[in-house]
Amino acid sequence: MTDGLSRPIRIGRIDYTNVWPVVHHFDPAALKHPAEQVQEMPAVLNRKLREGEIDLAAISSFAYGDSSESYYLLPDLSVSALGRVQSILLFLKSPLEKVVNGKIALTTTSATSVNLLKIIMEKFYGGKPIYEDAEPSLEKMLQGADAALLIGDHAIRASWQNHGYRVLDLGEVWNLWTGHWMTFAVWAVRREAARRNPEAVRDIFEGLTVSKRMAYRDLEPIVSKAQSQIGGTREYWQGYFRNLYHGFGPEQQAGLKLYYQYAHELGLIDHEVNLTEWPVAVAGNFAEPQVRK
Ligand SMILES: C=C(O[C@@H]1C=C(C(=O)O)C=C[C@H]1O)C(=O)O
């Protein structure tokens, strides 16, 4: 069925551990409304949501800014950090003075962080490097470049290798220069999907909110899962998840607005970006979800 009314709503889930505190306890099969879920790298979800292939997804915050007129934000959900994030990393083969006007390989999985890197290089450091897209593989990226940007679990795994490269944490650089939070991902719904199917969106929003609350109450299940799937120590993952913040309050919004302003000034986004929340939730029609058994 393709009329858009009767088909299941399509949800996108980022295939990195940084979203687990929101999605780990979320089961699309348990929703009242039929739903399908795809799990992909952020850049793929950005494209699928833009093209209407999916209806609601965690996407790069940059991608929200780029298409903000077509999307609503799901309130109080994000992937944010104040300072170090540990998984948005620039690996330097050459000294920083050379990198700022040298060649930087950019992971094809990201949108927020590649543009954050451009803001840092061009606005903060006054450089003008050449950028080239590359699959997220540190050694291959650095064969032909002075530095390489990795995000998510690719960055985490690379940070554990004994490669000797200097590493810049872009969350930390952003915070040092601006004093602000940085928001890397948000949850967005296509406006037409939200209008067509508000009950399903409410159902998903409730499910994600409950899931986040459960994860914040007890991080251990996701710490254990990350350890068994990716490796590393319990302490590493406890620190990693504690360092991230998955709400989206005034402080995170202020940081993201500044990021959009800089992106606009550099011509990376061609309009001013408004943060527009899904109006059903804003209107207060949304009942505080209860934890389901
Ligand atoms: C914190 C992170 O945020 C991610 C960074 C993204 C980007 O750069 O576009 C997109 C989604 C987030 O999951 C990370 O990858 O470590």
UniProtKB/TrEMBL annotation:
Sorted keywords for this record are: Lyase, Menaquinone biosynthesis
Q: What SUPFAM superfamilies does its record include?
A: Periplasmic binding protein-like II
> Briefly, what is this protein's role?
Catalyzes the dehydration of chorismate into 3-[(1-carboxyvinyl)oxy]benzoate, a step in the biosynthesis of menaquinone (MK, vitamin K2).
Concerning HAMAP family, the annotation shows: MqnA
Q: Please state what the protein is called.
A: Chorismate dehydratase
The record's GO molecular-function terms, alphabetically, read: hydro-lyase activity
Keyword Lyase assigned to the entry: answer is yes
Pfam families linked:
VitK2_biosynth
Which example biological process does GO assign this protein? menaquinone biosynthetic process
**Catalysed reaction equations from the record:** chorismate = 3-[(1-carboxyvinyl)-oxy]benzoate + H2O
InterPro entries on file:
Menaquinone_biosynth (IPR003773), MqnA (IPR030868)
Look up the record and name the pathway of this protein. Quinol/quinone metabolism; menaquinone biosynthesis
Q: Which family does it belong to?
A: Belongs to the MqnA/MqnD family. MqnA subfamily.
